[in-house]
Amino acid sequence: MAHQRLPVTIGHFRQYLALINNGSGCLHRTVSSYTQVHAKYCPIQYQSSRRFGLLSRSMQKEEPELTSVRYNVQRGNFARISSEDVAVFEKLLPGRVIADPEELVGYNTDWLRMCRGNSQLLLRPKTTEEISEIMKYCNAHNLAVMPQGGNTGLVGGSVPVFDEIIISTSLMNKIISVDEISGTLVCQAGCVLEALNTHLSDLGLMMPLDLGAKGSCQIGGNISTNAGGLRLMRYGSLHGSVLGLEVVQADGTVLDCLSTLRKDNTGYDLKQLFIGSEGTLGIVTSVSILCPRKPQSINLAILGVSNFENCLKALKEAKGMLGEILSAFEFMDSPCIDLVKANLQLTNPISDMPFYVLIETAGSNGTHDEEKLNLFLEKVLGEGIVEDGTVATDSTKIQSIWAIRERLAEALLHDGYVYKYDISLPLANFYDLVIDMRERVNDIATRTVAYGHLGDGNLHLNITSPTYDHELLEKIEPFIYEWTSRYNGSISAEHGLGFKKKDFIHFSK
Amino acid sequence: DLDGSHLVFMHSLPQLCKMANLRILVGVKRVIDYAVKIRVKPDSSGVVTDGVKHSMNPFCEIAMEEAVRLKEKKLAKEIIAVSCGPTQAQETIRTALAMGADRGVHVEVTGKEYENMTPLHVSKILAKLATDQEANLIILGKQSIDGDNNQTGQMTAALLDWPQATFASELTKENDHLKVVREIDGGLETIKVTLPAVITADLRLNEPRYATLPNIMKAKKKKIAKHKAADFGVDLASTVKVVSVEDPPVRQAGQKVESTEELVAKLKESGVI
Question: Is 0.90 topped by the overall pTM?
Answer without folding.
Answer: no
